[in-house]
Write a structure and sequence with these properties.
The protein is built from 9 helices and no strands. The longest helix is centred in the N-terminal third of the chain and has 23 residues, at 23-45. The protein is mostly helical. It has 2 domains: 2-98, Orthogonal Bundle (Rna Polymerase Sigma Factor, Chain: A), CATH 1.10.1740; 114-182, Arc Repressor Mutant, subunit A (Orthogonal Bundle). The protein is 74% helix and 0% strand.
Length: 184
């Protein structure tokens, strides 16, 4: 665990050096963070070859935008995670556009009970599953579609055939409830 905390303190310094154009820092940042970021991408896209592409695209974006990073706005690891997450969600959306399901009713059925159970097996994931199950059905469904499936608010509204304002409210209230439930 100590190695990970050393790496966490090193990440912001490395990002700032990358922002100044240091290729050595970019290489070191890749060495420190690539396995973790690849794992995040793989969990989202579920295909190793796409996860590898996502990681490569993310590091190109990191190289191009590292100068915009500010440690005062949050940890470097979170900044990197956000880039990889958004790249992975874009890859999922792109794949979804390329391979239409042909099922017009997709998303109209209630969530399968095991969707929440697939989130993970750690203690934190167990707490999240428990908190998700406490939400109202509409809140739970919208949050899962937005954060697990990676849909935008408007895509969620279209999928469940609900007004956009209602979807935004359900997500916002659901996230507030989750935050209260997850607080120690």
């Amino acid at each position: 665990m100590e190695n990970r905390s050393v790496a966490l303190s090193e990440v912001a310094v490395l990002i700032e050096a990358v922002g100044r154009g240091s290729q050595v820092a970019l290489k070191r940042l890749y060495e420190v963070e690539s396995k973790r970021l690849y794992g995040i991408a793989l969990r989202i896209v579920r295909r190793p070859e796409i996860a590898a592409d996502v990681l490569q695209e993310a590091f190109v974006q990191i190289w191009q935008h590292a100068a915009a990073f500010s440690a005062e706005r949050g940890p470097g690891a979170a900044w990197l995670t956000g880039i990889v997450r958004f790249r992975a969600l874009d890859a999922v959306r792109k794949a979804g556009r390329e391979i239409p399901s042909g099922d017009p009713a997709l998303g109209d059925e209630p969530l399968e009970p095991d969707v929440i159970d697939k989130i993970g097996a750690s203690a934190d994931a167990e707490k999240l599953r428990r908190c998700l199950k406490l939400l109202e059905h509409d809140q739970q469904r919208c949050i899962v579609l937005a954060f697990v499936e990676g849909l935008s608010h408007s895509q969620v509204a279209e999928r469940i055939k609900a007004p956009l304002g209602s979807v935004k409210s359900w997500i916002r209230r659901g996230l507030l409830s989750l935050r209260r439930c997850l607080e120690p």
